[in-house]
Design a protein that fits this description.
heterodimer, A: Rossmann fold, two-stranded antiparallel sheet, B: alpha/beta, Rossmann fold, 2 domains, 7-stranded parallel sheet, 10 helices, about 25% helix
């Protein structure tokens, strides 16, 4: 049982923002980085399946520069066996990332490929599905439960409005994992140390082609029109909230 | 620009996103065609025959419900047959199941979670957000003559009015569906309360920090005469049932007052509550996206505000 998990170290924007001179992105000084939340669920799910199978491995894959390895190390600390990083610089769109991942999947021939539903910084919800398209693999997006069978899996696809679509998917398949599917384990300090020793194989990307889109300009969104800010301490804010609630629910 | 809208339907009903896509198409189109891919497309065609639709293309397939291989192949053949400049698909769970794959295979322009659109010169400009909705971006599609856009739900009003669309059919060949629908399950139906009928929702999110802290807000909601609802992270943690969840994957609510404590305002959450009568948001992050839809906002600690509210009720 071999599960390949596509993971991403995402950028998190704090309270303040400045843009790069060409206005096409946020100045990296204003960004923090962390493992994409969805990807910790995807890694946990892969670990559980391999543990249940009794043997196999979990391989984490990222596309990007060396900074990506911080996120990969977290997955390795959770228990993933090894990592593969496809070296790439600069902003890639999800279709280019999928092209880079496709080469890795072809060389590794996993039984399952997982990706998070989306990344919290770009929210394209596209990489995993684009990967399935390029490789012509069966796929299911936004999955909250997996029961593995022989040559197929029964999965819950989480639709809008609290409805679940139970889907039978042929395997190997690409599945995008939704938050809440499991409870990701914490890595112990010892595991974090051990993860430093695990192998991350670096590969050069082939031709990633043209992006599907390109950012022309980033800007701070205009504030909601009617938003009135309540000033003062907690007591004053609470008093105003009470008044507003009374007026508006009357 | 010619636009092809892919209709979305579930259990015999066209979903609202379809009518929103038709409105989005009006920003671009001289010609809007709506494709209805279904076992019995004729039964759904009436629901999309609204103002602004020039043509309804019925595509008959074997499957009643959405299956991603079926849609991917059918839309690929629709594109080949109709050569649209722009293809619009919902940024929905169904859309996420096939549209990126299709765009990647065809190598066409692609962006998802798009909430604004316009033509500029001969080209197309779309807006979407990055970095937890704290930053918006204009994106362009250089070198692409055809573009597939996935549209954020509730960004356009549903198209309405009487249509006069021409009806057409397209025969497609779909080989093998490798991810097959077998059943639907309602996971949010069986709850102790129905948050969609409450006049006053007190809603809490990730800001509560610990499960133990939830009790305090349950107590506060009781005192204030509010119904307690939550954002997705608290359901993911297993702290609250799905039936209490506001947002795209939970319930869509429209109370008279929505008091959001410690909710940053993920797009999926906003989609489920932004039409509430009055929205009051309390968050420590002045840049939290929830303030963009709130009528009243306070940059404050939710525990301190909660404590003060306790004293007032």
């Amino acid at each position: 049982m071999k599960v390949l998990v596509c993971v991403k170290q995402v950028a998190v924007l704090g309270d303040e923002v400045e843009f790069t001179d060409d206005e096409r992105d946020v100045d990296p000084d204003y960004l923090d980085f962390a493992l994409n939340e969805w990807d910790s669920y995807a890694t946990e799910e892969a670990l559980r399946l391999v543990e249940a199978a009794g043997s196999g491995e979990v391989v984490v894959v990222s596309v990007g520069d060396e900074d990506m390895e911080d996120g990969m190390r977290r997955c390795l600390a959770m228990g993933a066996d090894r990592g593969i990083r496809v070296e790439a610089e600069g902003r890639l769109d999800p279709i280019q990332v999928a092209r880079a991942l496709a080469e890795v999947v072809q060389s590794e021939s996993p039984d399952l490929v997982f990706a998070g539903v989306q990344s919290s910084d770009s929210v394209q919800a596209a990489t995993g599905n684009a990967l399935a398209g390029l490789l012509d693999l069966p796929s299911v997006a936004v999955v909250t439960k997996i029961d593995l069978g022989d040559g197929k899996a029964t999965v819950n696809r989480e639709l809008e409005g609290g409805l679940v679509d139970v889907v039978e998917v042929d395997t190997p398949a690409v599945i995008t994992i939704q938050t809440g599917i499991n409870e990701p384990r914490y890595a112990t300090l010892r595991a974090i140390k051990q993860a430093e020793e695990k192998e991350i194989d670096m590969r050069q990307a082939g031709d990633l082609g043209e992006p599907g889109s390109r950012v022309r300009k980033m800007f701070v969104p205009p504030k909601g029109e009617g938003a009135e800010m309540l000033d003062g301490g907690a007591a004053e804010v609470a008093q105003r909230i009470k008044e507003i609630v009374q007026e508006k629910t009357a | 620009m010619s636009v092809l809208v892919v209709a979305e339907h579930l259990r015999g009903q066209v979903r609202p996103i379809t009518l929103e896509l038709i409105s989005a198409a009006k920003e671009l189109g001289e010609e809007t065609a709506v494709a209805v891919i279904a076992k019995d497309p004729a039964a759904l065609a009436d629901q999309v025959d609204v103002e602004g639709v020039n043509e309804i293309v019925s595509v008959q397939v074997e499957q009643d419900e959405f299956e991603n291989d079926v849609y991917r192949q059918a839309v690929e053949q629709l594109i080949a047959a109709r050569s649209p400049d722009v293809v619009l698909v919902g940024f929905t769970v169904n859309g996420m199941g096939y549209a990126p794959a299709l765009a990647a295979r065809l190598g066409i322009g692609f962006a998802s979670d798009v909430f604004a659109l316009r033509r500029e010169g001969g080209g197309l400009v779309a807006e979407r957000s990055f970095y937890g909705s704290k930053v918006n971006a204009e994106v362009e599609f250089p070198g692409h003559e055809r573009t597939l856009l996935m549209i954020r739900p509730t960004s356009w009003p549903p198209a309405e009015g009487d249509g006069a669309a021409v009806e057409a059919e397209l025969e497609v060949s779909v080989t093998g569906s490798r991810a097959r629908h077998s059943d639907f399950q309602e996971i949010a139906a069986s709850g102790d309360v129905d948050i969609t009928t409450a006049d006053f929702l007190l809603s809490v999110g990730r800001g509560v920090g610990e499960k133990e802290n939830l009790e305090q807000f349950e107590g506060l909601a009781d005192k204030m005469g509010a119904t307690l609802s939550v954002s997705r992270p608290l359901v993911d943690q297993g702290w609250m049932p799905n039936s209490r969840q506001v947002g795209q994957s939970g319930k869509t609510v429209k109370p008279k007052v929505y008091l959001a404590l410690g909710i940053s305002g993920a797009v999926q959450h906003l989609a489920g509550m932004k039409t509430s009568g009055t929205i009051i948001a309390v968050n420590t992050d002045p840049e939290a996206a929830i303030f963009n839809v709130a009528h009243y906002g306070a940059v404050a600690d939710l525990f301190e505000v909660a404590e003060e509210l306790e004293k007032l009720y």
